[in-house]
Amino acid sequence: MNHKDGFKKRYKMYKSGKFWVFTAMLFLGSSSLGGMVSKTEGVNPDSNIKILEKDNNRIIKVSQPVAQSNQNATVSIVPIGTIDNLNQDMITVGRYAVKKPTGNDRYPDDLAVTYDPNTNITYLLRVNRNTGEIKERKQMTKSDQQIGFGVDAVTRFNNSGFEINGPSNVKGATVASLVRFGVGQSDRSWKANFKSEKLPQKFALNIVYKDVEGNEISSKESYDIYKGQAYSVTSDPKEIENYEFVSTTGVLEANVVSNSTITYTYKKKIDFNPDDHKPTVKQPAEGDKVVTGTGTPGDKIVLTDKDGKKIGEGTVDKDGNFEIT
């Protein structure tokens, strides 16, 4: 063989970290395929996408099916400052002081409005203002109702929620708002009536599970929550097969004032086995200007000269073949 016009080759394969590396020292005449190194791509285990290592540049998105998990978040939903012992879910819609229309004498009991989110029933209570003892209970109706305060505090449903009216035959204000939706009120001035008191509005607490690209990877969890309640998510992020937890967005503990969403973000776990990505290079023949071989479909084969400069690249096709010109 004419070593000036042809070539001779010393060829070896070795494993370097996560890669199988092919080193082929080709001494050619006028050919441009000098010393070459072939590398397969790697997978960055700290990302949810398949990428080349630092000296390469391909990025391939990995399509993910929605993962399945039967483990839900632990969510606690409790009423704020409840005064009603009918059941543990009773919401304190309002608590009102009532005084007599003449003088400054206040009744020893307060008027309370509570709501059962399980049955959607609203109750009127007469409660001892010092001990919290419930003296009387009635379901609220659309008709005028009294519950131990006579005409000094008459209550009923209306189109906006409910109302409390003082006596119509005197000008004295007899009702003061102490608590609304479990929260103490700063303005406790006496008024003749409260015409537009609202019942608890229902909101939704949604817990969603997404990957870093925003794709849903597990079923959303939804919880009914009401104004007058507080929620807290006390569990660690659930484990999802083939995913690793990254971060949480949203408030994990709050008094309910609106719809709320908590997003748990995960990244894909990718295990890379270099043995599964070991390519083979076909022995070049004299005069060849292409390098061919076989490998794992989708892998990119990069050829560099002996100084590490890239001189060619190719992608393994669906049939497991590659060609670099």
Q: Could you list the spans in which at least 5 consecutive residues all have pLDDT below 50? A: 1-70
**What is the helix fraction of residues, given as a range?**
under 10%
The number of helical segments is 0
Give the strand content: over 45%
Oligomer: single chain
State the strand order across the main sheet: 10-9-8-7-13-14
Order of helices and strands: EEEEEEEEEEEEEEEEEEEEEEEEEE
How much is the radius of gyration in Å?
Answer: 37 Å
C-alpha end-to-end distance: 24 Å
Keywords:
mainly beta; 325 residues; five-stranded antiparallel beta sheet; single chain
Structural summary, described in words:
It is a single chain. The chain is mostly beta strands. Helices cover 0% and strands 46% of the residues. The chain has strands spanning 8-16, 19-27, 36-39, 50-51, 59-60, 75-79, 91-98, 109-116, 121-128, 134-139, 154-158, 161-165, 175-180, 183-184, 193-197, 202-211, 216-226, 229-233, 243-249, 253-255, 260-268, 280-281, 291-294, 300-304, 310-315, 321-324. It is rod-shaped, with a radius of gyration of 37 Å.
Q: What's the structural blueprint in terms of helices and strands?
A:
Blueprint: E1 8-16, E2 19-27, E3 36-39, E4 50-51, E5 59-60, E6 75-79, E7 91-98, E8 109-116, E9 121-128, E10 134-139, E11 154-158, E12 161-165, E13 175-180, E14 183-184, E15 193-197, E16 202-211, E17 216-226, E18 229-233, E19 243-249, E20 253-255, E21 260-268, E22 280-281, E23 291-294, E24 300-304, E25 310-315, E26 321-324
Parallel strand pairs: 16-21
Antiparallel strand pairs: 1-2, 2-3, 3-24, 4-5, 6-18, 7-8, 7-13, 8-9, 9-10, 11-12, 12-15, 13-14, 16-17, 18-20, 19-21, 22-23, 23-26, 24-25
